TrEMBL record, chain A:
Keywords, ordered alphabetically: ATP-binding, Nucleotide-binding, Transport
PANTHER family the UniProt entry points to: AMINO ACID IMPORT ATP-BINDING PROTEIN (PTHR43166), PHOSPHONATES IMPORT ATP-BINDING PROTEIN PHNC (PTHR43166:SF4)
SUPFAM superfamilies the record matches: P-loop containing nucleoside triphosphate hydrolases
Family under the similarity heading: Belongs to the ABC transporter superfamily.
Keyword Transferase included in the entry's annotation: no
Protein name: Amino acid ABC transporter ATP-binding protein
Automatic annotation (TrEMBL), chain B:
Biological process annotations from GO: amino acid transport
Keyword Magnesium: no
Keyword Nucleotidyltransferase attached: no
PROSITE patterns named among the record's database cross-references: ABC_TM1 (PS50928)
Keywords of the record: Amino-acid transport, Cell membrane, Membrane, Transmembrane, Transmembrane helix, Transport
Organism: Cryobacterium frigoriphilum
Protein name per UniProt: Amino acid ABC transporter permease
Length: 253, 231
């Protein structure tokens, strides 16, 4: 309850995003407090990616209000720059820079944007690599890493700028099944370390175990939100029930 | 009639001049191409002034790809001095004409290279808060040159060949001297054979330099791409 007294790290109020006539996000409210993990689930095309991409300004929003660590995203360059300083992001396709070693991927933003010295950036980078279970992999290029390893480097890269919140957009959806748990394990560790996270995922077990709150989205709106027990075991809305049963049906094929 | 041999020194001097014109024009065209190509590429979160520059660069490219370089030389050498009462040296006219002509092609080569960089790379750069210049330098430059270098070297060869057009305004370069020697000696095929072989050798040299550069780029990127085909 004490967290209710604090201001949220991320706050969305009535956020709207349109692509031409398509309303991808239609009035989404979301609050994420420090050290919380929020999972966003929902069918494909429901606006999950769009929502988290508005949080660091990768997509501009057409309505509503987004505040990240006290900075309101008002479309100005400076607000986007400030917000990106506080937000790390991990993509479904990793998006590592292929011409750089793992360590250079991690130290690029601290060195070139934050002005951290090479020595300090690399020392921190080595710690992060160890944290994601890739000690000794610092000079590997992305092409010399498996998908799961690449994604863990991407997580370290996202953490390297010491963000206030980490965004994950389906971080395990492009991975071979046997390495999914490696990446989820790292994310679990982060949650335990108190990293604030917003995770778009189809991994309901992960969501149930790790997320303080699960948000179910459909057709651009938040249909239902609750903790793992209430939302997954006792969903209230027809659309939630239908989505969960479709997921269960497919995952137990 | 004098012998062809008597003109050896003059010809060699002219060859040196051809090489000098080539080097200046290649540098000029490449610089224009790199700057304009990186500015005008369509990409995620390009600054507004890049987009404004693209309008201008598109017009430039369209014009200078459509006008023969010899006409550009005439225009700069005779036209500009006549119109503006301003004297421009022959060398400057030739180098400027070739720079603008080849620059238009190089700009398109570089632009295509930048635009071949996957969108996810730009998204990752943006999410990391990198500015456009850091993104160019650290994220776009290598894949851009890996893609663009072969066609850029092709344009270097075009530049060298097109310096022969400078004979059209009387610059004392290899082709001009060849024409002079032919007139003075009456030797036609020998003179032009030597001239042809000279251009061939210079261009082979440049092509060789180009392939060394390409190898260096591909060596430094081969680790980056060794498994890319499997992903
Ligand atoms: N760049 C875009 N241009 C046009 N429509 C888009 C774009 N990105 C997403 N959309 C549309 O917005 C809706 C939400 O997409 P998205 O946020 O990617 O959903 P999710 O991540 O939940 O699968 C979809 O209807 C999708 O087609
Ligand atoms: Mg998505």
């Amino acid at each position: 309850m004490s967290e209710m007294l604090k201001t949220p790290v991320v706050s969305l109020k009535g956020v709207i995003k349109k692509y031409g006539s398509v309303v991808a996000v239609n009035g989404v409210d979301l609050e994420v407090f420090e050290s919380q993990t929020v999972a966003i689930i929902g069918p494909s095309g429901s606006g999950k990616s769009t929502v988290i991409r508005t949080i660091n300004g990768l997509e501009s929003h057409d309505g509503g209000e987004i505040v990240v660590n006290g900075v309101t995203l008002d479309g100005s360059k400076s607000s986007i720059r400030d917000v990106r300083n506080d937000v790390g992001m991990v993509f479904q396709q990793f998006n590592l820079f292929p011409y750089m070693s793992a360590l250079d991927n991690i130290t690029l933003a601290p060195r070139r944007r934050q002005g951290v010295s090479r020595l300090d950036a690399e020392a921190h980078g080595m710690e992060l690599l160890e944290k994601v279970g890739l000690k000794g992999f610092e000079s590997r290029y992305p092409s010399e890493l498996s998908g799961g390893q690449q994604q863990r480097v991407a997580i370290a890269r996202g953490l390297a700028t010491k963000p206030k919140v980490m965004l994950f957009d389906e971080p395990t959806s492009a991975l071979d099944p046997e390495v999914v748990q490696d990446v989820l394990g790292v994310m679990k560790d982060l949650a335990h370390d108190g990293v604030t996270m917003i995770v778009v995922t189809h991994e309901l077990t992960f969501a149930a175990q790790v997320a303080n709150s699960i948000v179910f989205m459909d057709a651009g709106v938040v249909v239902e939100q609750g903790d793992g027990d209430s939302l997954l075991r006792n969903p209230q809305h027809k659309r939630t029930i239908r989505f969960l049963s479709s997921l269960n049906a497919s995952s137990f094929d | 009639m004098t012998s062809v041999i008597d003109y050896t020194e003059l010809f060699l001097t002219a060859v040196v001049y051809t090489i000098a014109l080539s080097v200046m024009s290649i540098i000029g065209g490449t610089l224009v191409g790199v700057v304009f190509g990186f500015l005008s590429a369509r990409r995620l979160e390009a600054p507004h002034w890049f987009r404004a520059a693209r309008v201008f660069i598109d017009i430039y490219v369209r014009i200078f790809r459509s006008v023969p370089p010899l006409v550009l030389m005439f225009l700069l050498y005779f036209g500009v001095s006549a119109a503006m009462n301003l004297s421009i040296s022959m060398t400057a006219a030739v180098v400027l004409a070739l720079t603008l002509f080849v620059g238009a092609y190089q700009s398109e080569n570089i632009r295509a290279g930048v635009e071949s960089v996957p969108r996810g790379q730009a998204e990752a750069s943006a999410a990391l808060g990198l500015g456009i210049f850091s993104r160019m330098r650290y994220v776009e430059a290598r894949p851009t040159f890996a893609v663009a270098l072969p066609s850029m070297v092709g344009q270097w060869v075009v530049t060298i060949k097109d310096t022969s057009l400078a004979s059209g305004i009387g610059v004392v370069e290899a082709t001009t001297i060849a024409l002079t020697v032919r007139q003075a000696t009456g030797e036609t095929w020998l003179v032009f054979l030597v001239l042809g072989v000279t251009y061939f050798l210079i261009n082979r040299g440049v092509a060789l330099l180009g392939s060394v550069l390409e190898k260096r780029i591909s060596r430094s990127t081969s680790r980056a791409q060794s498994r890319a085909a499997l992903v």
